[in-house]
Amino acid sequence: MLPTHLLTNTYKYINRAEYKVFKKMEHIHIKDIYDKVYIKLSEIIKTFDITVFGCKVDETKFKYLFETSQKILEDPYNIALQVIIENFTHFLNNKNGVGYIVYESRNAESNADKKSPDIKMYENFCKIKSVSKGIPYINQNSITNRIRYFDIVRKITENPGLEFADFIAFNLYKSFFVGDTKDKTEFMKKIEKSLYNGGFSQSVKDLRCFYGVRNIPEDYETINFLNKELDRLKRAYKNLKNEKEKLSSKNTILKQEKDQIKEQNKLLQEEINTLKSKSIEIDNNYQQNNC
Q1: Tell me: the pLDDT tens digits for 219-271?
Q2: Paired residues of 214 in beta bridges
């Protein structure tokens, strides 16, 4: 659950102190470590049958659609949390289970202010639990019964689950929103396959872009354009289909005419052969009479 500007800047983490050791290594050794890490991560997803939930918040689009002089726009983290809690509750209800949320702290170590990111996030969680804040489809009772608590973990603890979630978030972003299909790694493919699909088989219904990873806000301008383009293509397809049927009818007529011509040609050939035979007979008779 990361806003786009943080996901885009993830590559900058290479300058962190713990990563500087790689600067002294040969590229081939770095690639070997990289491959081994991602093979292991792929195995973890498969072994533990992990289900992935995600949400990408496009802050630029949100500002374009909602920002006014009164600044009514909600915090992107709150929006993402609402989406994920809704889909997580749906998942837990399908499994008849309960769960909890582990959240990586965004506070500075000395920040205990009531307006700090962690406090704001926890307050948002409480509002979601108590009054279904920002949840359009799942009722408040289901959220309360299925999601028990919200655990904030400091980044300095380097919680293995959260570190693994960072790998998933980064690769999910690359795979779905900035990557090229042909450049997808095996780990990316595993993540995509593990996205929550609402309890449906992916071969029957692919709803991962709704239940698994939500891209918000929806780009209605693009959707309208694509719908118009789809209508145009449908009309063009219908016209092509009609044209194909007309050409098919013409082809049938031409085939019939071709068959008729072939039959006529056959009759003419027979007449020619008959005339040739008669001509030969006449020539023979003429020669005999002259002798």
Answers
A1: 777 788 888 999 999 999 999 999 999 999 999 999 999 999 999 999 999 88
A2: 55
* pTM of this structure: 0.71
More confident of the two residues 30 and 123: 123
Indicate the length of the chain as a whole number: 291
277 vs 70 pLDDT, higher one: 277
Contacts of 53 (CB under 8 A, 6+ apart): 84, 87, 88, 91, 195, 196, 212, 213
Residue ranges of domains in the chain:
2-218
Q: What is the mean pLDDT of residues 58-79?
A: 82
